[in-house]
Amino acid sequence: MSTPLDHVEQLSAWLKDADLGLLELRGPNATLRLVNDGASVRVLDGEEIASVDEPSITVRAPSPGIFLDRHPLHERAIALVAADVRAGDPLGFLQIGPLLLAVPAPRAGTLTDVLVAHGTIVGYGTPLFALQPIEGETS
Amino acid sequence: MIRVLSAAALATVQDLGRTGGLNLGVGTSGAMDPLALAGGNILLRNEENAAAIEIPVFPFKVRFERSTVFAVTGADCAGRLDEAPVLPWWVHRAEAGQVLSLSLPKQTTWRATRAYLCIADGIDVPAVLGSRSTQLRGSFGGHEGRPLRDGDELPTGRSNDRAASGFGLVPPGLALPLEADGMPAVRVLPAAEYDCFSNSSHDALWSTAWKITAQSDRYGYRLAGRELNPLRPLELRSHGIVPGVIQVPHGGQPIIQMRDAQPSGGYPKIGTVIEADLWRLGQAPIGSSVRFIRCSWDEALDASADIRRWLANARRLVELHCREGRGR
Amino acid sequence: MTTDRPRTSLLGTTALLFEAPGETSLETQRRIWAMAHEAAGFPGVREAVPGMNNLMLAFVEPPRRPEEIEQRLIELWNVVAPLPIAGRCIDLPVVYGGEAGPHMSDVVEYTGMSVDEIVERHSAPTYTVFALGSHPGYCYLGGMDVRIATPRRKVPVLKIPRGAVSIGGSQTGVSASDGPSGWNTIGSTEVAFFDVNRSPPALLQPGDSVRFKAARVLR
Question: What ranges does the record give for the region Disordered, renumbered to this chain (chain B) (predicted)?
Answer without folding.
Answer: 136-162
